[in-house]
């Protein structure tokens, strides 16, 4: 699978990828952060335990996305160091 938007000359401010994939190579001054989430499809145990793994993954991703959307991006885009701190902090939300 390619990256047609990048090939078409589009600029991305943020890129979210699926777990387990290799990060694409982006040229230039890119900022990276890692928001790891256990893959619920790999959960084992009872049906209730597997369901709980999916609920946990969903709740974690939702909390992180909400925190990202709540960031004062207009301010942070001018302060890359602070933006990196905030993105890393969001990656710790469980």
Automatic annotation (TrEMBL):
<protein>
    <submittedName>
        <fullName>Arsenate reductase</fullName>
    </submittedName>
</protein>
<dbReference type="InterPro" id="IPR036196">
    <property type="entry name" value="Ptyr_pPase_sf"/>
</dbReference>
